[in-house]
Amino acid sequence: QLQLVESGGGLVQAGGSLRVSCAASGRTGSRYAAGWFRQAPGMQREFVARISWSGGVTYYADSVKGRFTITRDNAKNTVYLQMNSLRPEDTAVYYCAADVPPYGGRWSVPYEYDYWGQGTQVTVSS
């Protein structure tokens, strides 16, 4: 089992920056890939970014490419999402997720992931 806890959400003005974190505990040595998703009210959960276990491979949704950066520190069992140039449409609950091997390959869909955090609210004011 992996337990994931997000932190760092909050209220920020448009154009500002925020970093959210995801701390893992439990089977942290399971070489999991990590992803960030977000869900706005009344909307489906959508993919934001993914990072491999080594940190060497990353993927981003087109809507955040060039603005958001996903990183990880395996020594601290923590995954980060640095969000710059935030827009009001980035407002959502942000969820961290872990994809434990063997990977299914559909890394942008929620059911690919095995463990989820409880989410952290990010609100961007205009």
Give an overview in words.
- With 126 residues, the chain is mainly beta.
- The chain is built from no helices and 11 strands.
- It has strands at residues 2-7, 10-13, 18-26, 33-39, 46-51, 58-60, 68-73, 78-83, 92-99, 115-116, 120-125.
- The strands form 2 sheets. Strands 2, 4, 5, 6, 9, 10 and 11 form a 7-stranded mixed β-sheet that branches.
- Strand 4 and strand 5 form a beta hairpin.
- It is globular.
- The mean pLDDT is 96.
- How many strands in all? 11
Q: What is the alpha-carbon Rg in Å?
A: 13 Å
Instruction: Write down the secondary-structure element order.
Output: EEEEEEEEEEE
Largest sheet: 7 strands, mixed
Question: Structural class, judged by helices and strands?
Answer: mainly beta
Strand content: over 45%
Helix share bin: under 10%
Low-confidence stretches: none
Name the average pLDDT: 96
Q: Number of helix segments? A: 0
- Distance linking N and C termini: 40 Å
The geometry reads as globular
Task: Furnish the topology, listing elements before pairings.
Blueprint lengths: L1 E6 L2 E4 L4 E9 L6 E7 L6 E6 L6 E3 L7 E6 L4 E6 L8 E8 L15 E2 L3 E6 L1
Parallel strand pairs: 2-11
Antiparallel strand pairs: 1-3, 3-8, 4-5, 4-9, 5-6, 7-8, 9-10, 9-11
